[in-house]
Design a protein that fits this description.
transcription regulation, DNA-binding, 209 residues, alpha/beta, WH-like_DNA-bd_sf, five-stranded parallel sheet, 11% strand
């Protein structure tokens, strides 16, 4: 009977990238017992070629592999702005590597062998984190499509201004405000003020490009 991790709230793809078949077999068997079927790859190159890096999920990376090693794969995931949660596995107690991994956004770092219960809990939390990252990246991209005026109106809306107050502030007709307001909400895929306010923290991160 499969065991379910306590924090297993978000089920998504879990990848394992390792050149050691014995490790692949052991972790795949162990994590399957916790309800996590593992998609395996023998190299970083194969993983990057086959996986949609824009989608949420969790990847368990061997730190040392022929070809692209774990840190190199992590660097490419960062460059791709992937929401994947990265869990490192290493056969060596390499503290500097662990420090660098966390600095570059790794979710967790373990030395082989790792306990099944510990790894499964990390996967569960990693999947939840990845879902949040995916949501953030998706909506940040939408916010970056706003024009300067739409972003300005967004800021005025979340500051509590009415359409009339915004029209007075910007010296435009109320109808102009209504058009911009409707357009920005359509761009962001929201239908009410509550949904718009939820996106407010991302406005400060709007791309300068």
């Amino acid at each position: 009977m499969k065991r379910t991790s306590v924090d297993q709230l978000n089920q998504g793809p879990v990848y394992l990238v390792d050149d050691d078949e014995a490790i692949i077999d052991a972790i795949s068997f162990l994590m399957d017992s916790y309800g996590y079927p593992i998609i395996t790859f023998n190299s970083g190159e194969q993983f990057l070629e086959k996986v949609d890096l824009s989608q949420p999920g969790c990847v368990i990376l061997d730190a040392r592999m022929p070809g692209l090693a774990g840190p190199q794969v992590q660097q490419l995931l960062c460059q791709a702005k992937s929401p994947l949660a990265i869990i490192f596995l290493t056969g060596h107690g390499d503290v500097p590597m662990a420090v660098d991994a966390f600095k570059n956004g790794a979710f967790d770092f373990f030395q082989k062998p790792v306990q099944g219960s510990v790894l499964s809990q990390s996967i569960a939390k990693g999947l939840a984190y990845s879902e949040r990252q995916h949501w953030k990246l998706k909506h940040q991209a939408l916010i970056n499509t706003l024009s300067e005026r739409e972003a300005q109106i967004f800021q005025l809306i979340i500051a509590g201004n009415t359409n009339k107050q915004m029209a007075n502030e910007l010296c435009v007709a109320i109808r102009t405000i209504e058009v911009h307001r409707a357009k920005l909400m359509t761009k962001l895929g929201v239908s009410n003020l509550a949904e718009l306010v939820k996106l407010a923290p991302l406005l400060a991160d709007k791309s300068e490009s």
